[in-house]
Write a structure and sequence with these properties.
Elements (H helix, E strand, L loop, with lengths): L1 E6 L3 H12 L4 E7 L2 H11 L3 E4 L8 H9 L9 E5 L5 H9 L3 E4 L4 H12 L4 E2 L1 H11 L10 H7 L2 H11 L4 H8 L3 H14 L5 H10 L8
Length: 221
């Protein structure tokens, strides 16, 4: 079972998330929080597999809560899925730096939300295509630490790995990359793992940032 902690200040939205997750055969909502401080306390107490985190919450916002649970120096970073109303938002950018594992927009279909939780629980990262193509494209140059130079990335990765990295940066899921490149999802997963290892990256989010910062993928505007 995937143990989920739901952190959302709007009671109606929070109840909707709980209903969606509890209806899944492989998920269990182990706790709820209506503000960031309560979210941190619940996460430390319950040790959930995935935390679904709103950004704008009272007492302590979702960014600071994410930083305390998954930020630099955290011994055991939590897996956090940020669900936000905004697809281009300084708050989302800060949450990325704080260590969030993925992002979805609140208007996402329930199936996307369910898939997002499963993806992050499996140790992968998730970026909604809208967030990838706008937020990352605009803010990538401001993220730290600086990635290796483009020529080093090209030298380190095979042509196929470079191709997969470009598709990741375009916001495609493993299944979508597999379909586009005519390979299996399992093969894509292997390529992603190799890319992260070779470039010393923590997760898929950092891979996207690196692709934009090195010019392998051009951001909007």
């Amino acid at each position: 079972m995937i143990r989920v902690l739901v952190c959302e200040d709007q009671a109606l939205v929070r109840a909707g998330y709980v209903t969606i997750f509890d209806a899944q055969p492989d998920m269990e909502v182990v706790g709820e929080a209506a503000d960031g401080r309560a979210a941190v306390e619940a996460a430390l107490r319950l040790n959930p597999d995935v935390i679904v985190m709103d950004i704008r919450m009272p007492v302590l916002d979702g960014i600071e809560a994410t930083r305390r649970l998954a930020g630099p120096g955290t011994a055991y970073p939590a897996k956090i899925l940020v669900v936000t109303t905004f697809n281009v938002d300084e708050y989302v950018y800060e949450a990325l730096r704080a260590g969030a594992s993925g992002f979805l927009l609140k208007d996402a279909h329930p199936a996307e939300l369910i898939n997002g939780v499963r993806t992050i629980a499996a140790g992968e990262s998730l970026l909604a295509p809208a967030v990838t193509r706008t937020l990352i494209g605009h803010y990538a140059e401001r993220l730290r630490p600086a990635p290796p130079a483009p020529n080093r990335v090209v030298d380190v990765l095979t042509p196929r790995e470079l191709e997969v990295l470009q598709q990741i940066a375009a916001g495609l899921s493993n299944a979508e990359i597999a379909a586009k490149l005519f390979i299996t999802p399992e093969t894509v997963k292997t390529y992603v793992s190799r890319i992260l290892t070779k470039l010393d990256l923590r997760d898929r989010v950092q891979a996207v940032v690196l692709a934009y910062r090195t010019g392998l993928v051009l951001g909007p505007g």
